[in-house]
């Protein structure tokens, strides 16, 4: 958790009159920095790199902000943001979609990762899996999220399978269960869990969901609430401008950014090789910028296509847990209005 310390500036004004000199001393105090709380969605990792860069390089301080990072806990960032416990937080497209249709006040304000990271992952040394249809009847280690069953079924069925698998909910233990053979496959980020598996000598192979009919979506996103944005538009713009600088720096200087992330989180990031290789992949393979080189800009077409998939598959539910009856206006699920001018 990081907080910036307010600074006080003393100015001495010297005025000269005629042949004599008189000295007047005045004290000018800068206003204290505005606190912005950020809820993490996981333990610190390279998806969060831009905020740690912005903190370490003084971008938030220069914007008059004191940024406080709330560590990942059992309460979802979407809940923390909608209940005004956090001003902004990290989420993902599914999280935003399910939260909004259930009545929570959340909206994506920044695309920190521009393209899909999550893929169906299985052990590289498993000879029984060659294509998605081979996953039929196998054990899927999942996380209990509303959309993952549909994602798994869509991918397998697109390859000619039935999409029927055995399911166990293990959350963070899902990855280890695949490594040790107690489960056959899971959903993993190739930019983090995939790197970790490779570094630890347990490489994995993947099926990219987009190759099998599951549309691209934001696997990591920064969110806020309309209530906070409306009440604090200038602060929101300053925060996102500094955050944009942080991610732009990371895209241009991935290894320097990796060092800053490691230095900020020595207790949780104990293997520099994972962070360094992850940053090289994020920067080198275009995850930190969109196809036109922009940082943080949300793509409306991605939201429309993915949102329609969720609605058409009746995955979205309202506050009463019933399927959403009317197709939502996807433009209300995100905003680029608080980003700096290009």
Would you give an account of this structure?
The chain is an alpha/beta fold. It has two domains: 34-114 and 218-333, Periplasmic binding protein-like II (D-Maltodextrin-Binding Protein, domain 2, 3-Layer(aba) Sandwich), CATH 3.40.190.10; 118-212, D-Maltodextrin-Binding Protein, domain 2 (3-Layer(aba) Sandwich), CATH 3.40.190. Helices cover 34% and strands 18% of the residues. The protein has twelve helices and twelve strands. The chain has helices spanning 49-56, 59-62, 77-82, 93-101, 148-158, 173-179, 193-199, 226-231, 233-252, 254-264, 272-284, 300-312, and strands at 11-17, 20-26, 34-39, 65-70, 88-91, 107-110, 118-123, 139-142, 166-169, 185-189, 204-207, 221-224. The strands form three sheets. A five-stranded mixed β-sheet has the order 4-3-5-12-6. A five-stranded mixed β-sheet has the order 9-8-10-7-11, sandwiched between helices. A hairpin with a 2-residue loop joins strand 1 (11-17) and strand 2. Helix 1 (49-56) crosses helix 9 and helix 9 (233-252) packs across helix 10 (254-264). The two termini are 31 Å apart. Residues 1-27 have low confidence and may be disordered.
CATH class categorisation of the largest domain: Alpha Beta
**Sequence of strands across the biggest β-sheet:** 4-3-5-12-6
Proportion of β residues? Answer: 15-25%
Rounded mean pLDDT is 91
What is the N-to-C succession of helices and strands? EEEHHEHEHEEEHEHEHEEHHHHH
Structural class: alpha/beta
Annotated CATH topology of the largest domain: D-Maltodextrin-Binding Protein, domain 2
Radius of gyration: 23 Å
CATH architecture label name of the largest domain? 3-Layer(aba) Sandwich
User: Number of DSSP strands?
Assistant: 12
Uncertain runs are 1-27
**Outline:** globular
